[in-house]
Amino acid sequence: SSLHDNPTACVDFSDDKDADAFKIDDGEWDVIDGRYVGWGPDKAPAPCADSLMTHAIFQPVAAQDFSVHAQLSAVKRVDKVIAFRSTDSANRVQINFRDVDEAGKYGDIMVQEIKDCVFTKYTADGQIPWKHEMGKPVNVDLDVQGTHMTVKIDGATVLDADEPIGVRSGKIGFGVIDHSETVFDDFIIRKRD
Description:
seven-stranded antiparallel sheet; mainly beta
């Protein structure tokens, strides 16, 4: 993809020190076998526990408009999050890629925002269906310009729409839900502003 041609940042987690570029909200995060692994805490972290997510935010790059590529895989629980426009733990937008669980529930993509600790879902459960088996890696490409987002999963467009998200510069990273284990890899960012 063109994202790989002149990236602003590229992290393949081949070095344990790659984790040093991320600011951690809570939970445990570590580079293991060339991948960044996040374990969610036992309970949702303060100050914004309503989102149920805790984040690892990449510090070297802030952007309003950007493209990002990452490989994601949920090992325990269905949630895998790319967070962006993060200014602090109380203000960020996130896209949650939820696998189908053993009971056949979930299997969707959620657009969410935490603004001054108020948690808002911009998409309803099941509105953007995505039937993906838990444990299998998926390649995600996200392009955000203003309020417009395009999401591709393994090359197929699953979202191409405007959402009422906050437009501001912020940092980009990953998120995990409580009691989870999630794996991230091949993190590439290109600023567009």
